Amino acid sequence: MVAYILRRILLMIPTLFGIMVVSFVIVQFAPGGPVEQMIAQMSGQNVAATERVTGSEAGDFAGQQMPRAQDSTEVSTYRGARGLRPEIIARIEKQFGFDKPPLERFVSMMWNYIRFDFGESYFRDISVIDLIKEKLPVSITLGLWMTLLGYGVSIPLGIAKAIRDGTRFDVWTSSIVIVGYALPGFLIAVLLIVLFAGGSFWDIFPLRGLVSENWASLPWYQQILDYLWHITLPIIAMAIGGFATVTLLTKNSFLEEIRKQYVVTARAKGLSERQVLYRHVFRNAMLLIIASFPAAFISAFFGGSLLIETIFSLDGLGLLGFQSVLNRDYSVVFATLFIFSLLGLVIGLVSDLMYMWVDPRIDFENREV
Questions:
Q1: Which pLDDT belongs to residue 199?
Q2: What would the 3-class secondary structure string for 179-193 be?
Q3: Cα(29)–Cα(320) distance, rounded to whole angstroms?
Q4: Distance CA 216, CA 226 (A)
Q5: What's the CA dihedral at 259, 263, 265, 267 to 10 degrees?
Q6: CB distance 158 to 254 below 8 Å
Q7: Taking the CA atoms of the chain, what radius of gyration do you get in angstroms?
C-alpha cells in the first residue's frame, strides 16, 4: 500500500508539470496578452481587462502617454502601441514580467508555485489566493448542494429501479434520467428561467445573485429562506444532468448484490424482502457509491458551473476563470490551473484508496500504475 501511494505521488509531479507546460506554450501563441490589454485600456480601445481594477498602475502609465513622434520610425511589436514612448512599454512589460524570455518566466513561475506563492492578479489589486477565497462561497454552494441533491434523489431512485428491474417504472424513469443527462445544463437553466423567473410564464424565483441586496438586514431565518430561494434554479439546472450516473450506478450495484448467493441464503432463512434489502444488500451495494463520493463532489465543485454562474450572475470560480482568460490575467489563469490540477490528482488518489478500503478485493497495488 505504501509503495503504491508513493508511486502515485511521484507520478503526480510529471503529470502536473506536463499540464503546466502545455498550457504555458499554448498561451504564448494566444493573441492579446496582458501587455496588449493594458495598452488598449490606456488608449481607450478596451476596458474589459481593467473594469474591476482598484489601484492599478494604468492611470500612472496613461499620464505618461506621449503623442506619436513625427520622425519616429520605430515599430512596436504590440498592437495599438504606436504613440507610446518605448520606456512606457518597457515599464508595462516589467510590471507583468514580460521583459524576460518565456523559459525564464516559466521556471520562475513554477518555482513560486512549488512554494505555493501564487502572486497577485495582473488587473486586480488582490492576491490570487485571496481572490480565490473571495469566489469560493458560490462554488462551495453549487458543488455541495448539487452533490447532496444528486445523491439524495439518485440513490433512492436507483434502489427502486433495482427492485422493479424490467418493469414499466424502470423503463420510463431510465428514459427521464437519460434525457436529463443528454440535455446541456445551460439549456435547462434557460428553460427554468423562462418558466419560473419572470420569462413567459411565472415569476417565482429571482433571476440573479446568491442573496438579495438587503440580505444582511434580514432576520436569520429569512436569510436562510432568501439564500435557498436564490439557489433553487441554479442547483436544479446543474443537478438534473448528474442524476443518470449515480442512479444507474446504484441500480447496477444493487442488482449485482441481489443475485449473489448470500441473498438467496438470507431469503431461505425466512427474512422479509425489506430485511434482505436493507440489512444485507444495502451495506454491500453502497460501498462503491460511497467510495466515489469525493471524486463526485470535486467534479461538481469545480466543473460544469461556468455557464450556470454566467446565466444566473453568480460570481464563483467558474466565472473567475472565464473572465481571467478573456482579460489575459495569466497570474490567475495559471495559479487556478495549478491548484485545481493538483487537487484533482490528490482526489483521484484518495478515491482509489477509498475503493481499496471499502472493498479489499480491489487491489491497485499489484497493477501497473
A1: 67
A2: HHHHCCHHHHHHHHH
A3: 22
A4: 11
A5: -110
A6: yes
A7: 27
65 close to 3: Cβ distance less than 8 angstroms: no
pLDDT in tens, 117-156: 888 887 787 888 888 888 888 887 888 888 888 888 888 9
Q: Find the mean pLDDT for residues 101-105.
A: 85
Q: What is the pLDDT of residue 301?
A: 63
Q: What is the pLDDT of residue 57?
A: 43
How far is the C-alpha of 110 from the C-alpha of 128, rounded, in Å?
A: 15
Q: Cβ-count burial of 148 within 10 angstroms (0-12 exposed, 13-18 middle, 19+ buried)?
A: middle
The helix/strand/coil state of 127 is: strand
According to the model, what pLDDT value does residue 186 have?
Answer: 82
d(CA 115, CA 119): 11
> 219-233: b or e for each residue (b if 16 or more CB lie within 10 Å)?
eeeeeeebbeebbbb
Amino acid at 181: Y
Q: Which residue has the cell 418558466?
A: 195
Angle at 351 between CA 345 and CA 356, to 5 degrees: 130
